[in-house]
Specification:
single chain, about 425 residues, alpha+beta, nine-stranded mixed sheet, four-stranded mixed sheet, 12 helices, 20 strands, elongated
Length: about 425
């Protein structure tokens, strides 16, 4: 509980719900750690099905060596999601007649057998070069380059990758940029040996001036629009896209109390409404904050160890450079959470990012304000109830605007009358009167 004299001095409500990535279907999560030309990319797999059917093809801007590939922990991505998710908070009005305080894993290279050498020769005949082979954790990984998209497409098909019609043009555009391809499949024997029943995130570290995320291959065989959450961890400021508009979601607005019981539906509707307004051509900022603290915390900030496991290498360096060289205190790590709904028609280009100098905090935050429901009849209480009626009208209009829901249905669920008044609270029981005395 916290004492909070005025709202202007900061948040003092209670966190009650969050809009995390699990609220959305077909949602992919990517963590991008970026400092100068260094990038650590963590890809959380949302694959559902037999591990033998899993495969991923990711364009990368440079050659990837074995030591640059690591297998991460999904719990780190989940923690980052929880910390940065849009949140619902609540306040409680006090008695207008009486002032009270508000309560507020390293892998081994595959042996070069005769079969592997024959596979390499066939690949070269298609203009595809297998530049490296690794087994890292439960994944078999290839680094490919190619001369033409048709040969690469043929190679991928022959090796069991389900490349849909139309992929050749997208593959060709990456080849023209001189990009290579990071290709991964599950090694069932290694997965069984390691004892994991789920697919852990793949992490790749590389240096390149390109600060981008390739998304177009994922749209070729997509069944409708997809959701993507990008968590960018940087040293100096907020991250935004340079080739698409970055739009802040509506925030710090009051909505009706009943939304507390249906926050997932509310947030999905809010996001869908914003996408309709922008025509699915924008990337939405859901959160930007210094990882050292939060206001309020939907989850504790990530620890130094967790941040370093995601690739934030400078955390220890910055701490050592501080007076005393201690590991405590705020971290110079900013987290930007971006969310987009995309398809091939509306997002024809990959995402290109830049780190800005902006350090102004932002949260997608939605507020419930519970009215005082006492029976006092002082002049202040009568004026207060009139204010509550006006507030309910505004909350209903705000909710309708944010979600596209009908005002009449909202008012019905708010349980208010035509004059926006609430039902009278029940009279106290006789024993309650005695105990109050």
């Amino acid at each position: 509980m916290a004492f909070c004299p005025t709202l202007a001095q900061g948040f003092c409500g209670f966190y009650v719900a969050r809009g995390d990535a699990q609220l959305f279907n077909q949602a992919s999560q990517v963590v991008l750690v970026r400092d100068r030309d260094r990038t650590v990319l963590t890809m959380a797999n949302d694959f559902k099905g037999e591990p033998s059917e899993f495969a991923v093809v990711v364009p990368v801007p440079t050659f990837i060596e074995k030591g640059q590939i690591h297998i991460g922990e999904k719990a780190l991505v989940d923690h980052l999601d929880a910390f940065s998710a849009p949140r619902l908070v609540e306040y409680f009005d006090d008695d207008p007649c009486r002032r009270i305080a508000l309560k507020a894993a390293n892998g081994l290279m595959l042996p070069q057998s005769a079969a592997v050498r024959e596979e390499d020769r066939h690949s070269r005949s298609l203009g595809v070069t297998i530049e490296a082979r690794y087994t890292v954790g439960e994944y078999d990984i290839l680094i490919l380059s190619a001369k033409q998209s048709s040969g690469l497409e043929t190679w991928l098909r022959e090796n069991g990758y389900r490349i849909p019609p139309g992929a050749s043009a997208v593959l060709g555009s990456y080849l023209k940029q001189g990009m290579r391809f990071f290709v991964a499949k599950v090694n069932l024997k290694e997965q069984s040996r390691l004892g994991f029943s789920y697919l852990r995130p793949i992490q790749v570290a590389y240096e390149s001036p390109k600060f981008m995320l390739p998304i177009r291959l994922g749209t070729v065989n997509a069944q409708g629009p997809q959701e993507l959450f990008v968590y960018a961890l940087t040293r100096n400021g907020r991250v935004e896209t340079t080739n698409y508009r970055t739009v802040r979601l509506p925030s710090d607005v009051q909505i009706p109390e009943y939304v507390k019981e249906s926050f997932p539906a509310f947030y999905r509707a809010l996001f869908a409404q914003q996408v309709r307004k922008e025509g699915m051509r924008a990337v939405y900022l859901e959160h930007f904050w210094n990882m050292g603290w939060c206001d309020p915390c939907a989850s504790d900030p990530l620890s130094q160890e967790e941040l370093r496991n995601l690739g934030v290498y400078w955390v220890g360096e910055d701490a050592a450079a501080q007076p005393g060289g201690g590991s405590g205190g705020p971290q110079q790590v900013f987290v930007t959470r971006l969310h987009l709904r995309y398809d091939a028609a509306h997002f024809p280009e990959d995402l290109v990012f830049q780190e800005t100098a902006d350090q102004n905090n932002f949260q997608a935050r939605y507020v419930l304000r519970h009215p005082w429901r006492g029976t006092a009849t002082c002049p202040e209480a009568r004026a207060y109830r009139a204010q509550v009626r006006q507030r309910h009208q505004q909350e209903a209009q705000t909710l309708a605007s944010l979600t596209g829901w009908g005002t009449e249905d909202i008012r019905r669920r708010m349980k208010v009358g035509p004059d926006w008044s609430e039902p009278e609270p029940p009279a106290p029981k006789w024993w309650e009167t005695i105990w109050k005395k």
